[in-house]
Design goal:
heterotrimer; A mainly alpha (314); B alpha+beta (394); C mainly alpha (281); B: 394 residues; alpha+beta; Rossmann fold; OB fold (Dihydrolipoamide Acetyltransferase, E2P); 6-stranded mixed beta sheet; 5-stranded antiparallel beta sheet; 27% helix; 30% strand; C: 281 residues; mainly alpha; MetI-like fold; 11 helices; 0% strand; transmembrane (chain A); MetI-like (chain A); Sugar ABC transporter permease (chain A)
Chain lengths: 314, 394, 281
C-alpha cells in the first residue's frame, strides 16, 4: 500500500544512516583530521620510521666499533641470533618470568581487587596504598629489593640460607626478580580487575545465591564469566608488559647468572657491545614475539581490543 | 513576551535528509503549544530551530514580529528546558539559576533577587547552595525550570522536560508546569512524545509525523475530529480500535456486524468520494455494557456480542478485550504507529477490540457479553491515504 | 565475594581490617625499607636492621652537593614536565576528535595507538639510538622527550576520550540558550568539566615519564640529559671505594616523594583514569 508523505520519512531514515559525505560532514572530518594530525604524526614518526629502519639495520653487519665493515648481509644476523644459546636462554627466561609473574599477579590482583571493591573498613586507605607500588619508580623499588637481599645490608638476606648471597644464585635471583615484578605490577592488575568487578551487578550475585550457588560457585560460575572481558584485557596488557621486563633485572642482577631477559640482552648488545646490526635483529624478533602474543590473545581468546568497542558509541 | 511564527520552516540536513518540511504554525502570545509525535518526527528539530541551536534551511521564523533565522540563540531572548535538564554539575543551584543573568551582566543585587524569587516560586529555597548531583530528579527538574524562568524570556522552549521523571512525579509536575505557565503567561513551546501530556497541557497541539504537520488544533478537537488515521491512533488512550470495513449502500459491513450508516456519515462519504473498502475507527470509550444502556437509548445504536478475553478493572471503569476473527486493519500509518509503540511483533493473529465499560458492568472474563455503541460515533478512513473520510473540518 | 550486602558485624569488620593491614604492609614495606636505609649512618648501613639504629641526614646532604644528582633531578623534572605538557595537549586534541567527531581514520588512529601501547620499547631503542646520533638528538632533552611523548600519547588519548565521553555535551547547548557566546560556553561550562580529566591524564603521563629507565639509560651518555633513574644506576658514592647504598637510597626517596604526594592527593582520580581507559565496555 502506498500512502502520502512516506518519502520524507524514508529520506529521513536514509539520512541518519547514510554514508554519503556532505558539506557538514566534510567540515567535521577536516576538523577531526586537523586535531588528530599532530598526535598521529608524532606517533608514526617516532615509531613507524624507526621500526622500518630497524628492519633495515637488522639486515646489515653494523658494529659501531668497526664502522668500516658495515655491509648488507641479508638474514645472516638472524641466523647468528637464532643459533645463539644466550638468545634462547634469555628468551626462555623472559617467557618463564612472564608466565609466572602474570599468573601470580592474576591471583593476587583478583584478591586485591576484591578487597578494594568490597572492604567494609578502610576502602579508601587500601585504594590509596595500593597505588604506591604502581606509582613508584621501578628502579627505586628494584634497589629496595636488591638492598633487602644483599648480605649484611638487607633484612631479608638471611631468610633462607645463612651466609649466602641470594642474588648470586640463578634460581634465587629469578625468584627475587619475579617477586619484585609481581610487587610492582599487581596493583595495576588489581585496578583493571576492580573496574571489571564493578561491572558485575550485585543483583546478579543475589540471584545466583537464590538459585542455590555458594560463595565459590558464585565466584567461578557468575563473577568470572561476567568479568571475562576485563580479565582478558588485563592479562593482555600485563603479558605484553611483562615480556618487556628490563628495569628490575638490570638493577637486581644486571643479567648475570643467566637471568638476562631479551630486553637486557638487546641492551647489552646495543649499548654495551655497540653492535647495531645484532641489536636491531633482536629488536625485530622481540617485536615479532609480542605481535604473536597479541594475536593469540585477540584471535584465540577473543580479547576485545580496548577501543574497538568505542566505534559504535559516539 | 511575544508570538512565534513558523512560516514554511524546513530543515534539510547537509546530507540531503529532510527532517522538517514546510511547517506552518502561528503561536499566539502567551499560548501553550505542544509539538507531539513519535520519535524521529522532527519535533525536536523544530524546537531546536526555534531555539537557534539548528539552522533553518528555508522558511522564516519570527518571534515578536522580528525575523530570527540568523540570530544566535543568545540574541533570541528565549529560554529552554532540556530533557536531561542540562544542569551545570560544577555550579550550585543558585549559580545554575544565576548563570543566564550573569551572562546578561545584571548587577549582583538584581541577580540575587531574581534567583531567590524563582527559587521561592519553585520551592527550591532550601536547596540553593547544593550541587545538582545531590538533588532528586524532581528537584533537578525544578532547577531546570528555574533557570528558564529567572530571566523572564519572551518564550519557553521545553524538550520533553518530564520524561526523565517517574510516573507519579510526572503527573504532579505536569500540573505544576501548567500552573506555572498560566501564572507567568509566557508563550511556551513544549515537545513531547506522550499524548497524555499533549492532551492535558496544551492550549493547542501540533501533531507531527515524518517531518510534516498532520494536524493542528485544540486537544479536544483533535480527539473528536482527527484528520487521518495517524492522528486518530496517536491521540487517545487506550488507542482507537481500527477494523476493516466495507461500504455497501447505506450499510457498513464490519467485524462487529452490519451497521447502518447515518445520514450524516453517508453525506460525508459521498463528499469525500470514498472507496468501498475503508477502515473503521471507534474509540473504546464509545462502548458501553448493553445491559446498562436504557432501552430507548439502545434502539439508536448497534450491539456487538462476543466473549470477553481479558477484563481489566481500573476501579473507575473496566476495560474489556475481545478477540475478533478476521483480519486486522492494515495501513502504512497504522504500522508506523505500531512500530513507534514497539508492538509490531506482538503475537496477535486477528484484530482486537478494546472497550471501556462502566464500573457497574457485570462482564466477566471468558463469558459472553453484549456491548453497545453508537454508529454515529464511528469514524471512517481511507486505507490508502489514511485520510479521515468522515472529517468535519474546523 | 562472600559478602552480598552482608551485615557489618564486628567480626566482619575485624576480618576486613586484618586484610587491610596485610595490603598496607605489602605495599609499604619496600618503600619504608629504602626510606630507612636513606637515614642510616655509614657505620650502621650494613647492620641489616629494618629500622635505623642511628639516624642521619648525611646521605641527603651528600646527594644534594653532588652535581651528578642535582643535574639528574633537574633533567628528570624538566623532561617529564615538558613531555607531559606536549603529550596532554596533543592527546586532548586527538581525544576530542575521537570522542566527539565522526571521521574516517578513527579506527586506524585507535589501532595505531593501541599498537604503540603494547609495543616492546626495547625494539625502538636500537633504531632510535642510531637515528638520534645521526640527528644530534642523542643525549639531549628532546632525545628523551620525543619517545616519552610517543609512548604517553596512547595512554593520554584513551584516558581523555573516556573522560570526554562522560561530559554531557548538551550543556553546551544549554549555555548558548542561557545567553553564552560559543567562547563563553566553552570557558565557563565545558572547560571546568574537562579539566579534571585533563589533570588526571597529566598525572598518569607524568608518572610514566618519571618512571622510565630503558630510554633514559639507552639514549643518554652523560649528565646532560640523564634522568634520576638512570643516574641511580651509575651512582658510586663520593669516592669509588665508598658504598653508595645510602646515597642511592636517599636519591630514591627524593624521586619517590612526588609520586607519593600525587597518589595521596589524587587517589580517586588516578584510579578513575587508569580504569576508564582500559576496561570500559
Amino acid at each position: 500500500m502506498s500512502i502520502v508523505r512516506t518519502p520524507s520519512a524514508a529520506e529521513e531514515a536514509r539520512g541518519r544512516t547514510g554514508r554519503k559525505p556532505s558539506a557538514g560532514k566534510r567540515a567535521e572530518r577536516r576538523l577531526a583530521w586537523l586535531l588528530c594530525a599532530p598526535a598521529a604524526l608524532v606517533m608514526v614518526a617516532v615509531t613507524g620510521y624507526p621500526i622500518a629502519y630497524s628492519v633495515w639495520l637488522s639486515l646489515q653487519r653494523y658494529d659501531l666499533r668497526f664502522p668500516a665493515q658495515r655491509e648488507f648481509v641479508g638474514l645472516q644476523n638472524y641466523v647468528i641470533v637464532l643459533s645463539n644459546q644466550y638468545w634462547w636462554q634469555a628468551f626462555w627466561v623472559t617467557v618463564g618470568l612472564t608466565v609466572v609473574t602474570v599468573a601470580v599477579e592474576l591471583v593476587l590482583g583478583m584478591a586485591l581487587a576484591m578487597i578494594m571493591h568490597r572492604a567494609l573498613v578502610g576502602r579508601g586507605l587500601v585504594r590509596t596504598v595500593t597505588l604506591v607500588p604502581y606509582g613508584i619508580v621501578t628502579v627505586v623499588a628494584a634497589f629496595s629489593w636488591r638492598f633487602a637481599w644483599s648480605p649484611n645490608t638487607g633484612y631479608l638476606a638471611e631468610t633462607f640460607a645463612q651466609g649466602e648471597a641470594p642474588l648470586t644464585d640463578r634460581f634465587a635471583s629469578l625468584a627475587i626478580i619475579a617477586l619484585a615484578e609481581v610487587w610492582k605490577t599487581t596493583p595495576f592488575m588489581a585496578l583493571l580487575l576492580m573496574a571489571g568487578l564493578a561491572l558485575v551487578p550485585d543483583e546478579l550475585l543475589r540471584a545466583a545465591a537464590m538459585d542455590g550457588a555458594n560463595a565459590w560457585q558464585r565466584f567461578t560460575k557468575v563473577m568470572i564469566p561476567v568479568m571475562k572481558p576485563a580479565i582478558l584485557v588485563a592479562l593482555l596488557f600485563r603479558t605484553l608488559d611483562a615480556f618487556r621486563i628490563f628495569d628490575n633485572i638490570f638493577v637486581l642482577t644486571g643479567g648475570a647468572q643467566g637471568t638476562s631477559s631479551v630486553s637486557i640482552l638487546t641492551y647489552n648488545n646495543l649499548i654495551r657491545g655497540l653492535n647495531l646490526g645484532i641489536g636491531a635483529t633482536m629488536s625485530v624478533l622481540i617485536f615479532l614475539a609480542v605481535a604473536v602474543i597479541a594475536f593469540v590473545f585477540i584471535k584465540v581468546f577473543g580479547t576485545a581490543a580496548p577501543g574497538s568497542d568505542r566505534e559504535g558509541r559516539r | 513576551m511575544a508570538d512565534i511564527v513558523l512560516d514554511k520552516v524546513t530543515k534539510r540536513y547537509p546530507d540531503g535528509a529532510l527532517a522538517v518540511r514546510e511547517v506552518d504554525v502561528e503561536i499566539a502570545d502567551g499560548e501553550f503549544i505542544i509539538l507531539v509525535g513519535p520519535s524521529g518526527c522532527g519535533k525536536s528539530t523544530t524546537l531546536n530551530m526555534i531555539a537557534g541551536l539548528e539552522d533553518i534551511t528555508s522558511g522564516e521564523l519570527r518571534i515578536g514580529g522580528e525575523r530570527m533565522n540568523d540570530r544566535a540563540p543568545k540574541d533570541r531572548d528565549i529560554a529552554m528546558v532540556f530533557q536531561s535538564y542540562a544542569l551545570y554539575p560544577h555550579m550550585t543551584v543558585r549559580e545554575n539559576m544565576a548563570f543566564p543573568l550573569r551572562l546578561a551582566k545584571l548587577d549582583k543585587q538584581t541577580v540575587n533577587r531574581k534567583v531567590e524569587e524563582a527559587a521561592r516560586i519553585l520551592d527550591l529555597t532550601q536547596h540553593l547552595d547544593r550541587r545538582p548531583a545531590n538533588l532528586s530528579g524532581g528537584q533537578r527538574q525544578r532547577v531546570a525550570m528555574g533557570r528558564a524562568i529567572v530571566r523572564s524570556p519572551k518564550a519557553f522552549l521545553m524538550d520533553e522536560p518530564l520524561s526523565n521523571l517517574d510516573a507519579k512525579l510526572r503527573v504532579q509536575m505536569r500540573t505544576e508546569v501548567s500552573r506555572l505557565q498560566k501564572n507567568l503567561g509566557t508563550t511556551t513551546v513544549y515537545v513531547t512524545h506522550d499524548q497524555t501530556e499533549a492532551m492535558t497541557l496544551g492550549d493547542r497541539v501540533v501533531v507531527l509525523r515524518g517531518g510534516e504537520v498532520q494536524q493542528v488544533g485544540a486537544p479536544q478537537f483533535l480527539y473528536e475530529h482527527p484528520a487521518n488515521l495517524f492522528v486518530a491512533g496517536f491521540i487517545g488512550s487506550p488507542a482507537m480500535n481500527f477494523l476493516p470495513a466495507r461500504v455497501e449502500g447505506d450499510r457498513l459491513h464490519t467485524e462487529l456486524g452490519e451497521l447502518p450508516l447515518t445520514d450524516r456519515v453517508r453525506r460525508l462519504l459521498e463528499q469525500a468520494e470514498a472507496p468501498r473498502d475503508v477502515i473503521m475507527g471507534v474509540r473504546p470509550e464509545h462502548f458501553e455494557d448493553a445491559a446498562l444502556v436504557e432501552e430507548h437509548a439502545r434502539a439508536g445504536g448497534a450491539v456487538y456480542r462476543g466473549q470477553v478475553d481479558v477484563l481489566e478493572s481500573m476501579g473507575s471503569d473496566k476495560y474489556a478485550y475481545f478477540s475478533l476473527g478476521g483480519e486486522r486493519a492494515s495501513s502504512a500509518q497504522l504500522e508506523e504507529l505500531a512500530a513507534d509503540a514497539g508492538v509490531t511483533d506482538l503475537p496477535s493473529g486477528g484484530g482486537q477490540l478494546v472497550t471501556r465499560l462502566s464500573a457497574a458492568s457485570q462482564a466477566r472474563e471468558g463469558e459472553r457479553v453484549e456491548v453497545w455503541f453508537d454508529p454515529d460515533q464511528v469514524q471512517l478512513f481511507d486505507p490508502n491515504s489514511g485520510r479521515n473520510l468522515t472529517y468535519q473540518g474546523g | 565475594m562472600a559478602v552480598i550486602g552482608g551485615a557489618e558485624t564486628p567480626a566482619r569488620k575485624a576480618k576486613w581490617a586484618l586484610l587491610d593491614v596485610v595490603v598496607v604492609v605489602y605495599a609499604l614495606v619496600p618503600v619504608l625499607w629504602i626510606v630507612s636505609l636513606s637515614f642510616k649512618t655509614k657505620g650502621t648501613i650494613t647492620d641489616g636492621n629494618f629500622v635505623p639504629r642511628e639516624w642521619t641526614l648525611d646521605n641527603y646532604q651528600e646527594i644534594f652537593t653532588t652535581t651528578e644528582f642535582v643535574r639528574a633531578l633537574v633533567n628528570s623534572i624538566g623532561i617529564a614536565l615538558i613531555a607531559t605538557l606536549i603529550a596532554v595537549v596533543l592527546g586532548t586534541m586527538a581525544a576530542y576528535a575521537v570522542a566527539r567527531l565522526d571521521f574516517p581514520g578513527k579506527r586506524a588512529l585507535i589501532g595505531v595507538s593501541l599498537l604503540i601501547a603494547m609495543f616492546p620499547q626495547v625494539s625502538l631503542v636500537s633504531p632510535l639510538f642510531d637515528i638520534e646520533r645521526a640527528l644530534g638528538l642523542f643525549d639531549t632533552w628532546p632525545g628523551l622527550i620525543l619517545p616519552y611523548i610517543t609512548f604517553a600519547l596512547p595512554l593520554a588519548i584513551y584516558t581523555l576520550s573516556a573522560f570526554f565521553r562522560e561530559i554531557p555535551w548538551e550543556l553546551e547547548k544549554a549555555a548558548k540558550m542561557d545567553g553564552a557566546t560559543p567562547a563563553q560556553a566553552f570557558l565557563k561550562v565545558i572547560a571546568p568539566l574537562a579539566a579534571p580529566g585533563v589533570f588526571t591524564t597529566a598525572i598518569l603521563v607524568f608518572i610514566f615519564a618519571w618512571n622510565d629507565f630503558l630510554f633514559a639509560i639507552s639514549l643518554t651518555s652523560t649528565e646532560r640529559a640523564r634522568t634520576v633513574p638512570a643516574a641511580l644506576s651509575f651512582f658510586t658514592g663520593a669516592s669509588q671505594f665508598e658504598d653508595p647504598t645510602g646515597t642511592i637510597s636517599a636519591a630514591a626517596v627524593v624521586i619517590t616523594i612526588p609520586i607519593i604526594v600525587f597518589v595521596l592527593f589524587f587517589q580517586r582520580r588516578i584510579v578513575a583514569g587508569l580504569t576508564s581507559g582500559a576496561v570500559k565496555g
